[in-house]
């Protein structure tokens, strides 16, 4: 078969996870040639204004240019962090494959003496720019100071070495996929910080009419991850929310039983609505939609709208 071009952003994390994907694809398709092409996105160019772009409804700032390259056929497969991918599918494209998820939990990386969330001293300064992490952190420990920190993994880890932060919170998968798991001081339990929908998972996106490429990508699909992610994303879509909302979702599967937990928080931590549902994993999409409805009836929409206005 012809050479398959795999497109991704150029950050250390994006490249590491794309190399991981290409290794898995090569195991399945040893005769096929794969090459990696990096693409700069609006999010890479203009990190400071992420929240303002989100407000303008511009959800695809990490992925638009990559999707354009797919449609223009300059790449064949796009590798995205699933949590950055809007829940609405882009016309002409489809997610062909969701490989096995890494650990979905957030991690704490702390300075000396700041090594676990529960043990942080009163008033500790925690770096994160995620409204989800802010909301849940403040709900857990109102005394904590949550301070914005922007940038890629390297920049955010470096913040811990400065005097401005005592610790930062990151997606554990980002450290795992860049061979830095050892730098995580704590994998934060999901009963303190519920992960973002899709956190730790990747999506392989292809042109909807390219069956051959879809087959290549699907060879590394992981059925259990696929069910978990489907439930989490249907929940997010059902709330009408995106990746910048104060929303957590975490699905687990035991045998055929899928359990989905959802949280929606007030940004100041004054309130967190929590709900759980479970059922047959084959009903993953319905379970997500039902949980969203349940939480909307408990007032989740107001919390999401309040966060948008912040
Ligand atoms: N929003 C940026 C982003 N998108 C995906 C990851 C990490 C890897 C993943 O969740 O798959 C990160 C960084 C972070 O949240 O710390």
UniProtKB/TrEMBL annotation:
E.C. no: 2.5.1.61
Modified residues (S-(dipyrrolylmethanemethyl)cysteine): 243
The UniProt record lists the keyword Transferase: yes
Keyword Ligase found: no
PROSITE patterns: PORPHOBILINOGEN_DEAM
Enzyme kind, highest EC tier: transferase
Cofactor binding note of this UniProt entry: Binds 1 dipyrromethane group covalently.
Domain of life: Bacteria
Domain Porphobilinogen deaminase C-terminal: 228-296
Catalytic activity, as annotated: 4 porphobilinogen + H2O = hydroxymethylbilane + 4 NH4(+)
Protein task: Tetrapolymerization of the monopyrrole PBG into the hydroxymethylbilane pre-uroporphyrinogen in several discrete steps.
Family note: Belongs to the HMBS family.
Extra remark beyond the main annotation: The porphobilinogen subunits are added to the dipyrromethane group.
Official protein name in the record: Porphobilinogen deaminase
Organism: Deinococcus piscis
């Amino acid at each position: 078969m012809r050479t398959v071009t795999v497109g991704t952003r150029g950050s250390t994390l994006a490249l590491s996870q794309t190399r991981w994907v290409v290794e898995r694809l090569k195991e399945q398709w040893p005769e096929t040639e794969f090459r990696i092409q990096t693409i700069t996105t609006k999010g890479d160019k203009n990190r400071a204004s992420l929240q303002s772009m989100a407000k303008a409804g511009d959800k695809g700032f990490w992925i638009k240019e990559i999707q354009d390259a797919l449609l223009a056929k300059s790449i064949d497969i796009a590798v995205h962090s699933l949590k950055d991918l809007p829940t609405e599918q882009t016309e002409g494209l489809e997610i062909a494959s969701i490989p096995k998820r890494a650990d979905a939990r957030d991690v704490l990386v702390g300075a000396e003496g700041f090594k676990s969330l529960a043990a942080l001293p009163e008033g500790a300064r925690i770096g994160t720019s995620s409204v989800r992490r802010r909301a849940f952190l403040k709900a857990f420990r109102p005394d904590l100071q949550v301070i914005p920190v922007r940038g890629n993994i390297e920049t955010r880890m470096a913040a811990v070495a400065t005097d401005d932060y005592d610790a930062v919170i990151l997606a554990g998968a980002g450290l795992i996929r860049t061979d830095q798991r050892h730098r995580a001081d704590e994998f934060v339990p999901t009963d303190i910080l519920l992960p973002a929908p899709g956190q730790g998972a990747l999506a392989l996106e292809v042109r909807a009419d390219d069956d051959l490429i879809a087959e290549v990508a699907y060879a590394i699909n992981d059925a259990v991850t696929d069910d978990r992610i489907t439930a989490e994303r249907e929940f997010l879509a059902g709330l009408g929310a995106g990746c910048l909302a104060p929303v957590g979702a975490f699905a687990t599967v035991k045998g055929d039983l899928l359990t989905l937990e959802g949280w929606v928080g007030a940004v100041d931590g004054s309130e967190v609505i929590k709900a759980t549902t479970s059922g047959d994993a084959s009903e993953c999409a319905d379970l997500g939609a039902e949980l969203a409805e349940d939480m909307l009836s408990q007032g989740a929409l107001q919390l999401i709208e309040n966060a948008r206005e912040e």
